[in-house]
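Last lecture ended with a question: if I hand you only a sequence, what can you say about the shape of the protein? Today we answer it with a concrete record. The protein is Enoyl-CoA hydratase. Below, first the input exactly as provided, then the predicted structure, then a couple of comments.
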Amino acid sequence: MTDAIRVERERGLLTLSLNRPDKKNALTRAMYSHLAETLKQADSDPDISAVLITGSSECFTAGNDIADFIQQPPSNLDSPVFHFMLNLLECRKPLIAAVAGAAVGIGTTMLLHCDLVYVARDARLRMPFVNLGLCPEFGSSLILPRLLGHAKAAELLLLGEGFNGEQAAAWGIASEALGSGEEALARAREMALRFDSLPREAVRISKQLMKAPDREVLRKVIEEEGALFTQRLRSPEAMAALSGFINRH
Ligand code: COA
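The predicted structure:
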């Protein structure tokens, strides 16, 4: 467990805050493990009605820690990042995200698995996988073309184009865009707490119905993407791009 993930409980709502401000909340192996374990516990805890994932009012997350990618790249599906992905995919409780500032890489793709997503209008979302010599992950190669059509998804995944919170809401990636990071977090908390007074079993069954048709195919796609992603991490293209970021000053 790491203090770079803050875990707070308010009635039935469990809030997980990414808390590594000096590195823009970049996610390390330890942070993925902590998130994966906490999600699993929350899933089987009858007292928890919903889980809210957030960063700070300035930054959601800069994505995977790039130094970790170089020093300890995930080598197979038994790595912390894949435990996190699968536990998020399998979570039966409502998942809510509040996003402000940068949401890069997995900071954007994890939103595709949340049930409700509240973003600041000027949040900066981006999936620069190709730019880093990598490939899409976390089911994004399946979900985004379905959601946006191939041509718009290709701008985001093949060119690594960034977009803002307002666009995320217009495209259905987010539920609503709000005026500031504080407002996005307040709305996310307000909506997440509503699950506390809804019938839990009805919520669980309804989410299951919404997710069931895609669950198996998504798991398969996540595994296929993951196998290629871990290979790409060791490619000369990725090595050059990742060390370029680390040595950019
Ligand atoms: N991994 C490791 N460290 C990261 C990081 C990441 N993904 N993103 C940012 N950091 C670190 C920077 O190296 C810097 O550390 P330093 O102060 O020790 O030099 C610190 O966080 C602040 O980052 P900085 O780039 O100065 O902040 P910014 O506000 O100008 O820009 C981002 C923020 C998120 C837009 C920018 O940091 C960025 O593009 N990060 C890389 C995102 C990325 O490609 N993620 C991987 C996706 S697969």
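Comments.
1. Strands lie at 5-10, 13-18, 50-54, 95-99, 102-104, 116-120, 124-126, 163-164, 176-178.
2. The chain has ten helices and nine strands.
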